[in-house]
Design goal:
mainly alpha
Length: 56
Amino acid sequence: MTKDWQDEAAYKHFDSLDLSGLAWECLRRNSDYRANYPRMRDGLKSPAAWGLRFPG
């Protein structure tokens, strides 16, 4: 069962997120990002296209 997007209780954790946590919550819900993720994981698409940067 999916969460009711209108249920305020389902979003309480958003109040405690920092900026990067909020960005991740929004990004992971994006259907285009989810479709691109396997290609990024396999090195076939750059994560920079989504504004992602990784330390190191």
